[in-house]
Amino acid sequence: MLKTKQDVSNFLKEKKISPTSQRVEMLYKLIQKDQHLSPEVVFKMVNDDFPKVSRATVYNNLNLFIENGIVRKLSLGSISTVFDTKNEQHFHLHEENSDELIDVRTNEETTGKLSEAASTVLKKQMGSGYKVKDVIINFEKV
Ligand SMILES: [Zn+2]
Questions:
Q1: Domains by residue range for the chain, with CATH
Q2: How many Å from the N-terminal Cα to the C-terminal Cα in the chain?
Q3: Distance from the alpha carbon of residue 84 to the mean position of ligand 1, in angstroms
Q4: 118 Cα–ligand 1 center, Å
């Protein structure tokens, strides 16, 4: 676990990412807890510390974190994207009205079966050479 900003800086160096103060500050804030954040919220978070930062810079840094598997990108339909700072593999329950996103651990029996089913469906539809990244169950109160 990355506890201090120095830890974050060293971690970025290990990943061959230049640890600029902006990146260190940004990642440090992102990983303080497991959270799902919209691009706009991430931008505002960084903007608090670096008022002159551009959206493009923030989004480039986010993409760098995604490419290196530090942060996960989730697409909820065509317009909504959130960034997930929880590191371990998990699925999602998505409440459509409130847009609430709930983490579901994948190592339990039911989610294990779900994972297996999703892999089978994917393979049947797309052939081999693909893997399930996430299972998102959209739900609403009835
Ligand atoms: Zn999540």
A1: 5-84 (1.10.10.10), 90-139 (no CATH)
A2: 40
A3: 5
A4: 17
